[in-house]
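ingest -> validate -> predict -> emit
validate: passed (alphabet ok, no gaps, 261 aa)
predict: started
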Amino acid sequence: MSDELAGKVAIITGAGNGIGQATAEVFVAEGAKVVIADLDDEAGAKVAAALGEAAHFVRTDVCDADSVSALVDATIAHFGKLDCMVNNAGISGSYRRLMKDDLRDFDRVIKVDLLGVILGTQAAARVMSPGGSIINTTSIAGISPGVGFTSYRAAKAGVIHFSRCAAIELAELGLRVNVIAPGNIATQINAQFDTASVVAQIQPLQRLGSPQDLANAAVYLASDRAAQVTGVVLPVDGGTTAGHPPLKPETVMREKKPAGS
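emit:
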């Protein structure tokens, strides 16, 4: 590691597992101090304990404005400042197709995946000094259309548009707002899928992504190397949003018949 984030203080929501946990681990390895924000007391405290004095756990409900404000206040009280806010917490909702979806999970998904990002961005921007970085997690489901997960897709698309708007507004404060869009990543939220099959069918780069891949992207956006980068959506998806891999010849070419047949 290169101490890319030495001296910086970050909040990472949803850091009790998956991408959030990996991001916290890589940030600390790069020299940052990190506040682990999660609704799961046991998981959040465990991650913070493993990272030692460079980490601090604060139980947080990202859907609640008072809870998010208290998170930021606790960060300032414990580490003295806030340089980077990673609004990563999210849930997937139901796969149900549109015509069979009763939208029972709509409110919860929108609150966690979109409202949580808005509240986190707002609270962080109120205390950050110029040079601060806000990183919001969307999904390639918010970039490319598809079937199922109607509420999730709508929320993640909302994260992109909100973040671009916030990037314009907060630029006058010297703050940057960028978005990371995970693709097919090996996490709990994707455990219901046959990830190897998904990679083979829709991802040009035939490599299963890991939470660390997202963490590495977040390190760049949090660092001073990205000082001129704002309003950007960065897919970490093995090329999925660029296009599907070429079809194998046997799937598109008809079998040639012998001459004269």
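The CA atoms of residues 67 and 243 lie 40 Å apart.
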